[in-house]
Amino acid sequence: MQEKMTTLRAEAIAPLASELARNLGRRLRYLRAQHSETQAELADRAQTGRAHLSRLERGKTLPRYFTLVRLAACLGVHPAELMGGETGAPGNGPRNPDRAIVPQ
Q1: In this structure, are residues 29 and 57 in contact, taking their beta carbons and an 8 Å threshold?
Q2: What separation, in Å, do the N-terminal and C-terminal C-alpha atoms of the chain show?
Q3: Is the pTM for the entire model greater than 0.85?
């Protein structure tokens, strides 16, 4: 029964993940082009493989969290911007406004 539930959840999530991957890929390719970098150059700076970066840009896969953070840092954007959000949008700020933000 548990296996069937897991399969149903995965099938429901797959279209959303696929759209997210395609949108991320478009933004990634656009920002890389704005920096006049090749895939190999960006992959090297972000400490990932060129083939992996190619799969990301084609929307075939989603990055792990730390890969996303490194790519965003190399491109000079917030990770939320790569994923389609805006850093100034509601809900993207700190949960506790009294908590100090750690400088990067």
Answers
A1: yes
A2: 45
A3: no
Domains defined for the chain, CATH in brackets: 8-82 (1.10.260.40)
Residue 34: its pLDDT value, please? 93
Q: List, as one string, the DSSP characters of 59-84.
A: TS----HHHHHHHHHHHTS-HHHHTT
Q: pLDDT by residue (tens digit) across 40-67?
A: 999 999 999 999 999 999 999 999 999 9
Measured at the alpha carbon of residue 28, what is the angle toward residues 80 and 91, in degrees to the nearest 5? 10
Rounded average pLDDT per 10-residue block, the chain, 104 residues: 54 75 93 95 96 94 94 94 66 46 46
Task: Give backbone dihedrals phi and psi of 48, rounded to 5 degrees, phi first.
Answer: -140, 175
Residue-wise burial string across 31-55, b where 16 or more C-beta atoms lie within 10 A, e elsewhere: bbeeeebebeebbeebebeeebbbb
